[in-house]
Amino acid sequence: MKAKAYSPGGLSGFFSTHIVEGDLLHTGAWGGGIALRKGVYVAVEVEEGTKTEIITTLNGKRADLFVSRRVAERLLLRTDKQYRVIIKQSIELPMGGGLGTSGASALATALALGKALGLKLTYEELAREAHIAEVECKTGLGTISGLVTGGVVLVIKPGAPGFDRTVRILAEPSLRVVIGFYAPIEKKKVLEGKDISRIDEIGREALSRILEKTDIVHFLETCKWFSQTTGLMGNRVKRGIEAAEKAGALGASQAMIGETVFALVEKDMVEDVSAALRTTGAKITISEIEWCAARLL
User: Fold this and answer.
1) What domains can you pick out in the chain, each with its CATH number?
2) What region does 258 belong to: left with phi over 0, alpha with psi -120 to 50, or beta?
3) Claim: this prediction has a pTM higher than 0.85
4) Taking each helix axis from N to C terminus, what angle separates 235-246 and 270-278, rounded to the nearest 10 degrees?
């Protein structure tokens, strides 16, 4: 039994955590971000066996993709048979840079494996399994909400899909997202750090500001304000944002939580902004905005 699925990547521009002890479906985050056409592709192969075995590969090489493994473990609990499961992934974005690769991996795996196993689950139920796996693995809180919505997304009620609420901000289809990646940041250190209460308060203020004026430029400006005010913006990111804006970006900020710059750019300015970010030492990825949700292929 085989199945394939795709999930967009999903960068986060700001966030405010919402932890409900003992309730993973209502745990999540307020926030906002952009779904990216560049994302994660998953191909799943399943066959019955004498014992359960889960094998994960990344871009053709065997790798321990623990979030996808956790999704598979949860879905296999819904069967009464033993399976050998092979999960093959192709990831088009830098990992650990606040670009939603863990959430995209979890969601695409849930969709493909749910199909391959013949589980009688709805799209939302499979997405909830991805959300729970992300929370359990401490790789994200509100990413899945954006990946099942698409576009420029605001999460205005935190939680798993079906328990959350999202809205979208309009943006011109010609816009491109230029991403400048420097290095990963371990999310756990931030999410469990001593400053998280202050960061959460600033994140809720950011959401309030954006909801008062829901246009894309104001969204970018507020994301940058969040990054600066929380102190999450380091020197390399600051230089990258300044370089992108000077080169003609509509606006730029930091992807959460990573040492990563993202800029929204008109098509004819993509090369100028990319070149400016390269001079700061960033690895460049260019993507369109993905306005459709994760899906089977």
Assistant:
1) 1-297 (3.30.230.120)
2) beta
3) yes
4) 150
